[in-house]
Amino acid sequence: MGQSFFIWTDVDCRSMGILLAGPPSIIRGEERVKHVTIPGRAGELTLTEGDCIFQGYIQTVTIHVKGGYRVRDVQNWLKGAGYVTFSGEPDRKQKARVIGAVTLEKHSRNLDFYTGEVQFYCKPFKELLISSPSTVTSSGDTVRNNGDVNSRPLITATASGTSMTISAGGNTLTITGLTSSSVYKIDCEAGIVTDSTGTTNLTANSSGNFPVLDPGSNEVTGSGWSSLVFDRRERFL
What backbone torsions phi and psi does residue 203 show, to the nearest 5 degrees? Predict the structure, then answer.
């Protein structure tokens, strides 16, 4: 088994002189539910807030820092918010924030090691470090979501007319006021439509619901476009 590590804000902990006490846990977040007690009824009624609603969680790692001169550099690095990757799932990243104090104490008088814990408050969904786009050129083509839950893609659309419709995952979006052969960015997570440069906002020209990609194969239909390139933004538990 290789050496355990984590990557925080694009910096590998090993480049900071950090060793881990053990491999980080692989965690799946808890589904957000409410348990309701009904008088006269045994047990509780379990209510969910919706499909794929999960809690964030804390990932704690114990670190050893070699060299007292590195302690302040490490503490200044382990702060704020960003993306973190753990060695147990090296192909994935997730949004996180460092919480709590980062206290490093001398491990031994005979060894120049300092030991402490770092807590990452992680968002429940993980993303692929590297993902390949999917291109649709005809209504009825399919796009596959290999993730565990539905995703809200970023779509790069080339218009073939002055309006277009895009349907996927039971949602249909219509955009008007376009220029044929021009390229547009449709951010289904942020709910924003812009031109290819991102300088002209066309969200006010859109109506309906932004497409989603359910886990598995998704049929994409519509008109007014010659190609759609999907950054699928697959998400994993």
Answer: -60, -35
